[in-house]
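Give me C-alpha cells for this 329-residue protein.
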Amino acid sequence: MARDGARPAYDPAGPDSALRTALQEVRTGRWMSMRTLLAETATWGQWTQRTQILAAAAAGTDVVRAWLAEEPDSVPAVVMQARVGVERALRAARDDHRRTQELWHEAWLASDTASRAAPHDPVPWVCLLALARLDREQRWDEHRVAPPEPMLPPGPWGLLAQAHKRDPYNREAHHRMVQFLYARSASGRLAEAVGFAHWAADGAPPGSALHVLPLYVRVERYRRTGGRDAALDLHWVAEDATREARRAFQGWFELTTAAERSPLDLNHLAHALWSALQFPEAARVFDAIGPYYAPLPWACRTSGPADHAQAVDVFLQARARSRSAARRP
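Here you go.
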C-alpha cells in the first residue's frame, strides 16, 4: 500500500485502527469504545495524541457528558471533558463567537479539575497550554513567565514545564507553545516561534518528534505570506531549510518505528525534503506515509488553501517526482 499510486484521503486516525473504530463510535454518540481504547493506551505520547483526536470528534456531541453521567469517578472521562472544553473554546475563538470568553473559562476550570484528578497526566497541562493562546494581551501571570534562556521570549513556561515533568519532550505541548507564539506575533515575522522551535529541537533527544518542529514554523511563515513573495520560495531550498529537513530525517525518522510516527509529522517531513530537493530521502518518507495524507503542509503550496483537492494534487506530484528521482542511478 505504501508504494502504490492511489489518491490519498485524510484520516485523522492515520494507521491507528483502534482509534478509527473509537472515532466512529464517538460520532454516533457512543462512548464505550473510547473508554476501552483509552484504558488500553500504553504510553503518554499515544495517550496525548488519542485524547486530542477523540476530542475533535466529540466536541460537537454530548458523548463525554454522557460518559461522565454514567461514570462520574472515571479519571479518563474527566480528562476528556477538559479536552472537549478546550476544543470548543479554540473553535469559538477561531470563529469569533460571542461565547468565547465563557467557553474559555469553562475549559480552564475543566483542565484545572483534570490536573488534580490525574496528577501524573501531561494532558491537563497541555490543555492549559492550548488555552494560553486566547490570552492575547497576556494578562495572566502564568502566560508571561520568564524564559529558561535569555534569548527566548516570556510565555507560559511553567505550564510547559509541568507537561515536560510528566512526559519529557511531549510533542503536543511544544506545538501548543509554538501556537501561543504565533498568536502573539499575528502580524510579525515569527522570529520568536523560530527561536523556540530550534531551541526545542536542539535540546530534544534522538528520535524525538521535536526535531520536526522547525519544519512547521517554516510552513507557517510561508502560509502567512500567502506564497505571494517569489523571493520567499528560496527558503525551501536555502541552506538552513535543507539542514532542518535533513536533521529531522536523521534525528527522528531514521530512529523511530512506524507506530511512533505521527502522520502530520511524516507529511511535514516529506514536504520539507521534497522542497529542499532531497528526493531519495523524501521518497522513503512518502513510502512511510502510505495513504495517510494530511492537508497541511500541502495546502500552503496551492492557490486556494481551502481547496483540498488541489492540495492532494500537490502531494501526488511531490510523491511522483521524489520516487522518480530516487530511482535514477
